[in-house]
Amino acid sequence: MRMAMHYIGENYRDQIRLEELASLTGMTPNSFCRYFKSQIGKTLFQFLIEMRVKTACNLLLENKQTIKQICFESGFQNFSSFHKYFKNITGTTPLNYQKSKT
């Protein structure tokens, strides 16, 4: 699991393929998914989304980039998904989050 978490930490801004993670750990994709959820308590997808939103929150606090730049810098592939997941996790929009913290 340590190798998988290191890989995720280094590559979360890019598209992470389940097959690649599974092969790093010597597991099948289904086995890796079950093992990951049993160890972390979340699916790989949930974990990645939360990691990316936390990164976006930190970048929003720095207030050095536009929200659209932060979307891509934190690993999201499109702005609408970023906005949706950000609001689901934080309960507010990226802009409102940034305004409330500065």
Estimated radius of gyration: 15 Å
**Can you tell me the overall shape?**
elongated
Helix and strand run:
HHHHHHH
Strand content: under 5%
Number of helices: 7
Rounded mean pLDDT score: 94
Cα separation of the termini = 37 Å
Helix content: over 70%
Sequence stretches where pLDDT stays below 50 over 5 or more residues: none
Please state the structural category: mainly alpha
What about the largest sheet? none
Q: How many beta-strand segments? A: 0
Brief descriptors of the model:
single chain; 102 residues; mainly alpha; 7 helices; elongated
Structure explained in plain terms:
The chain is elongated. It has seven helices and no strands. Helix 2 packs across helix 3 (29-40) and helix 4 crosses helix 6 (79-90). The protein has 102 residues and is mainly α. 75% of the residues lie in helices and 0% in strands.
Write the layout of secondary structure elements.
Blueprint: H1 2-11, H2 18-25, H3 29-40, H4 44-62, H5 67-73, H6 79-90, H7 94-101
Explain briefly what this protein structure is.
The chain has 102 residues and is mainly α.
